[in-house]
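quick one before i forget lol
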Amino acid sequence: MLDVALASHISPETLRKIESGRVATPAFPTIAAIADTLGLSLDAVWAEISRAERTVEDESALPVTRHPSLVS
């Protein structure tokens, strides 16, 4: 993690915050720098973000089921 952060010219703490979700919307230049360091295209990063968002949307559309012991 330290090597990626330093090669991306960001602090290791910033990278930790991004990974843990404490920075919900990192700046575009930060994401671009991390992607470049990791050898990822921004298209690949965007595709992964879009896939993850579709998964969350699909899961939120599922009906809520309750365990029988919780139904009163």
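fyi The CA atoms of residues 20 and 46 lie 19 Å apart.
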